[in-house]
Amino acid sequence: MQRGGKQEMTLSQQLLFLKSNPVVGGSGEVSRHKLTWTTQVQPTPLARDYTVRLILKESETPDVFVDNPSLTELAGDREIPHVYLNPLRLCLYLPGTGEWHGSKRLDQTIIPWTFLWLFYFEDWLATDDWKGGGKHPGEVAEPKGNRENRRRVARL
């Protein structure tokens, strides 16, 4: 399927890029029109390790779940910023803006953005101040500096 003039990658192509990227690590499979990738993420050398699961269904947008440790338990009674609920998954980009679509590689977008989200989450746990920027549909636009940071990380 084409979106925005570019051919969407197949799930198998996405899996191949994830497996061949020496920085990403992890393991996964494609089964029943769904890619599942599990990896360990440590956003900084002093941060805790997170077990992260990425799911991409054919012709859909990716979902990222933190399986361990529980973000809810870490947050205590605070509402976790920039997540989608039911089930809890990370809000990494604003859908419909072209920041991510099926022609973009998961290993160069979603995975680095997950590291960045968890970096800001660790900071938020300590300071109670979300510095990761971003917005949800209907919110006021974010400063461009945060989008530029995500793009810089994606190029690494």
UniProtKB/TrEMBL annotation:
This is Type II CBASS E2 protein domain-containing protein. Residues 134-148 have a biased composition (Basic and acidic residues). InterPro entries: E2-CBASS. Pfam families: E2-CBASS. Residues 27-137 form the Type II CBASS E2 protein domain. Residues 134-156 are annotated as: Disordered. It comes from the Bacteria.
